[in-house]
Design goal:
By secondary structure, the chain is mainly alpha-helical. It has one domain. Helix content is 81%, strand content 0%. The longest helix is centred in the first third of the chain and has 43 residues, at 64-106. The termini are far apart.
């Protein structure tokens, strides 16, 4: 009897569900890139659609399908124009940038300070993240067709989701009173928590990365940096890594800075990164992310170390959102302990 009560316990069922989800993720790890892209595209496009609908509703009633079609037509048009006008430039600049950075670290200049910095970088874990990130960018910059197909599939599936969202919700509701209702309720619980925590953190990371990218490109242009499109793409992708991404971007940026202006340009780049980090910490994060996601820096780096080992490059992007999702599922208290209550 006690055993039966134990298996009927809600906490046990949710832990078992988490175990099943992890098992499924392990089984589909070969297409994990596509699964993550589908979720990210669907979530972000759904948020944009809701925002537009709410804004237009105050002015005039608009059919939701019209907004969906117009939204995706604009996205497709932007992609086509971007590919036609900028893809060759972006690919060329990214490849040149990555080759330049690799050559610099393989053959550093005869400068004691630079040699010391390069040696220190090679000894710490952050160099491993940078190397993997650069290899990741190089692989996808030289293999457009592979990630292009994945992005296209994710975009098409997100389009069909928004197009038939009411039907999908109604169809999924049928399982509520079926023989798998227990499974449905648990999945609905996890789905709601996942969207509320993981999705919103991913959304905030994208917005913060866009702001950082835009401001960084303006500052780099003022400093006379070349290959701004490639550098902007690199800053945006590294900006998706919470906290650490901005500091990891120091390595390629300082490399380029030294080649064009020496130590003075390196100091300008460090100053730029510190200003952007202050903007992110004291303005963007409090506005876009709840208190629960305001993790100590120690926890942030610890999570990134472990998530990178398990998920590779993707782990640097989704590690923090997954951890926040687990905190939400486990009902971890959002209220931070006061400094007076923490004993040294």
């Amino acid at each position: 009897m006690e055993v039966k009560k134990y298996f009927q316990n809600g906490t046990f069922r949710r832990l078992a569900m988490i175990f099943c989800i992890v098992l499924v993720l392990i089984l589909i790890r070969k297409i994990l890139n596509l699964v993550l892209l589908i979720f990210i595209f669907t979530y972000l496009m759904n948020r944009i659609h809701k925002f537009i609908m709410a804004a237009l509703k105050k002015i005039m009633p608009v059919n939701r399908l019209v907004i969906v079609y117009v939204l995706y037509l604009l996205v497709v048009a932007a992609i086509v124009v971007g590919i036609y006008n900028y893809l060759p430039i972006v690919s060329s600049q990214v490849v040149q940038l990555l080759v330049q950075i690799k050559v610099f670290y393989m053959n550093p200049p005869n400068d004691p300070i630079i040699n010391y910095i390069v040696t220190a970088i090679k000894k710490v874990e952050i160099s491993g993240y940078t190397e993997q990130g650069l290899d990741f960018l190089y692989k996808y910059a030289t293999n457009i067709s592979k990630w292009g197909i994945e992005v296209l599939i994710a975009l098409v599936l997100s389009f069909f989701f928004l197009l038939e969202k009411p039907r999908i919700v109604a169809f999924t509701k049928r399982f509520e009173k079926s023989k798998v209702s227990l499974f449905y309720h648990e999945m609905a619980y996890f789905g709601e928590r996942f969207s509320r925590s993981f999705g919103k953190v991913i959304e905030a990371q994208f917005l913060i990365a866009l702001v950082n990218c835009f401001l960084s490109v303006i500052a780099l242009k003022i400093m006379g940096f070349p290959q701004l499109i490639g550098l902007g793409l690199l800053i945006f992708l590294l900006g998706l890594i919470p906290v650490a991404g901005m500091f990891i971007s120091l390595i390629p940026l300082c490399t380029v800075a030294y080649t064009i202006g020496g130590m003075s340009h390196i100091m300008y780049v460090i100053l730029m990164i510190l200003v952007l980090h202050a903007l992110e910490s004291y303005f963007l994060n409090p506005k876009l992310i709840s208190a629960k996601t305001n993790l100590p820096v120690f926890y942030t780096f610890l999570i990134l170390v472990f998530s990178e080992r398990f998920f590779g490059v993707w782990g640097l992007i989704i590690g923090i959102p997954v951890f926040i999702f687990l905190l939400d599922v486990l009902d971890v208290n959002e209220n931070e302990a006061s400094e007076n209550e923490v004993k040294e």
